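Lab channel / #folding
Pinned by the channel admin:
"Please post every new chain as: sequence first, then the structure tokens as a reply. Keep commentary short and put observations after the output so the thread stays searchable."

First post following the new format, from NK:
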Amino acid sequence: MDKVILEAKKRDVLGRKTNKGRKEGLIPAVVYGKGVSGTNIWVKLLDFKRLIKKSGESTVIDLKIDEKDNRNVLIYDTQKDPVRDNYIHIDFFQVRMDEEIETEVELEYIGEAPAVKELGGVLVKNIGAIEVKCLPADLPSSITVDISILKTFEDRITLGDLNISKKIELSIDLETVIALVSEPRSDDEMSGLDTKVDADVTKIEGVVKETAPVAGTEKKEKKEEKKGK
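Reply from TO:
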């Protein structure tokens, strides 16, 4: 496991007062864990974005608080500004290096599938991440999936085909299909998708058509319900 370091400083301000720090390029965050009291901290937005770009979100971080308090943590949760797409809060979970952890690891798809390039097929990625259980030191930042072996429409990549350390326990079966290439649709199939469907779905068994209540009936029903009580 490559060591990833992130600097942080203790934070005293809470709530809306943290907006001033955000404007200065800081992210309010909290560190907590099993038997560990929560600690409010600041981390630099630029440093955190660089870390995510280089190592991903599923990696053990050596968090240095005020240059003296070192903690081994995982990114447990992040919040983003929906408009600016910037991180506005982070939850770090402190781990013990001698205790196994359960977390998700992203699958990184690399290469080019001949069945897509040469046969015009469509790449199908069935899974984007998998749950794993291992010691923090054995946790990979990502798991590589090389799609260049998909040469025909019959080829499949299963979980068992991936290069995963035996020190990592997986939550799903090794025969689970990770990726494949499906055949391109014919012209007839594509034109069929454009056909307008005018069928009355209420005639299908089990489908009930909802109608708007007649004005006043809803209040009347509630009054009668109260009288019944």
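NK: The chain has two domains: 4-95, 103-187.
TO: also worth noting, Residues 4-95 form a domain with the Ribosomal Protein L25; Chain P fold (CATH 2.40.240.10).
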